[in-house]
Amino acid sequence: MFLVLPDYNSTAAGVPCPTPAMYGSAPPLYCPTSVGATGWGTDGTFLFAPNSQSAQFYRNFLEGMTCQTSWCWGQVDGSAVSTTTLLSNLPTIGSLDFTTQPLQILLGSTDYAAAQSLTGWNYGPKWGGFTAISRTTWSKYDSPATLKSGGLLMAQFRSYAGDYDCNMFGHVSFYQVGDLLGSDIGNPNNCGFGDNSDYTVMGDELQFGGSRSNVFNRPPGPGTTIPPATSLMAITAWSSANHGPWPSAYGDQNSQYMRVCADESGGYNQSIVSLNYDLHCVDDLKGTGGDHFIVDARFVSTKTAQQIATHIHYPQNGQTAWAGQVPYAEGHTTCPGSHGCTGLDSDRWIQELESGTSDGYPVDPIPNFGLISKFLSPSNIFVTWDCPLGLECTPSSTYGGGAGDSDRVGICAGSGSCSSSANLFESFVIHKVAGSLTDTTLTATPINTVDGKWFGAQVTGSLSCAVVLEARGGVSHATMSTFTPASTSGLCANNVQYLFGGLTPGFYSVTVGGNAVGSPFTVWEGDNSIEFTSVGGEVQLTFLPPSVVQRPATH
Predict the structure, then answer these.
(1) 0.90 surpassed by pTM
(2) Residues 409 and 449 in one domain
(3) Strand bridging mode 496-501 / 465-471
(4) Which domain holds residue 302?
(5) Ranked by mean pLDDT, which of 53-67, 82-96, 267-281 comes out on top?
(6) How far apart are CA 95 and CA 62, in angstroms?
(7) Which residues are registered as beta bridge partners of 530?
């Protein structure tokens, strides 16, 4: 339900089709009537938990698909898969409107011992498919086109499991009537096979020492010397304090924001990389009636100086979209600053806009969206346009090891070039989703607190203002220096969305412009954040010790 793209865009046959976002490198299965698509109806919830709410949501979701069989089970062709599906999908399973669910979810629950006892398979942490998904809308087959143009953000913290897969240590992708963040392998977010799946080059996985030789659990191939790891990604924070009556995996019950953080250090051979910490946080601010902001923050420290880099891939590079899933022609990615793409480090400003060209099917939305990106850091980074000559990448003109299916921006530790060595890498990338091809307004003013424990920005678009801070140093903090954002007028005078991530569990009082907000705020272990909407003004945050407010024993 959460993986399906918000727009049921039409296939070559002109039939609107629910299409799943790419997850690993499995070939995409389009409409449930296509060959092999019986998998749509074989979800384990029907077999193991037929009376659950999830089963009822999923039945309702399948009922609304565009297919020719009851519940969209896929073609009943007499195969063992079809027979098994029909036997497990009991007619007594109820149907609940799946669009009543909140719009984000963390796929992060594990029980390795139970899985092994039930199946006999030796599961372990390296098999964890940890993924956070944040949507801006649900859609159904019968929805008007105007309701089918929402966004889908995915943050994946997964290792290589084998076969149709690759390492995705902190891969961030975003789709809105076209891919706006992805990878550089054919269809954006398709991680390829074998040695083609080097996400330190063709994705946004952190690269240490200029190569992937230190990455655990990568696919087999020439030069493979690193054994599989026993433990890899670990979700360290998921904002769920306001989950309400829903399970905490749903996050904010009002679907105003998402925040997820992961410790990615387990993905690398420590005898080579020698990490102190490697924290990656993704924030999605999608307040009703405001701009849509995405923050991608990395805080990394190593014991020895070395090259540290990540890369962001913008799929809109003027190509004809690959056949099958997205029939739209792509738009373009540019560097609007005065120094152009060859001087990107001076301006640190990227503008990616879709084509605005219809795919020829009246029921499909027009690709009229984009991303505006700004690159900040409390320390030294170097930002570079990696396509040759400052132009857009193509299959015949691209960076080393690239496929030419995306425009790549490199973010490197140190200053002056990406060949620099450093012990500290702090990257704070802000994306604004452009609601139209002319909606390109974005300012991002850094906020570096006096105590040096926090970094963030005041972010202003065309509709709203937000203030986002994340903790530095790879640990949580209970104190924050008082600060005042650069602007407290215009859009930043009222209805400012605040998000502070990386707080030590406990109780906090917060005042903005001298007025108290919260009553007080409770920060839970595993959440570690505060989110609220208030006026603009001086921000003061104070930790309240247990002697002031009694802390509940459990959450």
Answers:
(1) yes
(2) no
(3) parallel
(4) 103-438
(5) 267-281
(6) 10
(7) 500
